[in-house]
Design goal:
Length: 152
């Protein structure tokens, strides 16, 4: 995995991107939430630059494993912690945790992989876990949220 400068917009964007990719797809609701909450701008990036970081993460995940991306459970804990360790500013950590929780809940479904990553983020940074409005549950085959694209 490539590394980014500590507390850089790219290191922050990669964490948000990892949350987006956790359940193997990015829904339309998630893409709309990115725009609605102006997440790239809040991370001091343009939308195209944010999407470039997401694409670079996909490239890294592809080279990391010989099999297609299977979701967050395929990511070794050490790699996830290395990403999280690039953020040591406490204010930025709080912002990222809030943005990630917002993205996870925007489609009214919390996938287990999404919840696991957000909880491990909070635990790793010694922050309180978010309180979910929705419970993590297996997504039924007829989901409310239509996938916008399958990632990686």
């Amino acid at each position: 995995m490539r590394s980014y400068r500590r507390n850089s917009p790219e290191s922050a964007a990669r964490i948000v991107s990892m949350i987006l990719l956790a359940d193997c797809h990015v829904s339309r609701d998630e893409m709309e939430a990115l725009k609605h909450h102006d997440i790239p701008h809040r991370l001091d990036l343009s939308h195209p630059h944010f999407m470039l970081v997401t694409q670079q993460l996909c490239d890294d995940l592809r080279t990391f494993s010989e099999i297609p991306w299977q979701g967050a459970q395929a990511l070794p804990t050490a790699s996830w912690h290395a990403m999280l360790d690039e953020i040591d500013d406490s204010g930025l950590r709080l912002i990222l945790l809030d943005l990630c929780a917002t993205l996870v809940e925007c489609d009214h479904h919390i996938a287990v992989d999404e919840q696991t990553l957000v909880h491990s983020m909070a635990d790793h940074w010694h922050l309180p876990r978010p309180v979910w409005r929705h419970r993590a549950r297996p997504q039924p085959s007829t989901a409310k949220s239509t996938p916008a694209l399958v990632m990686c």
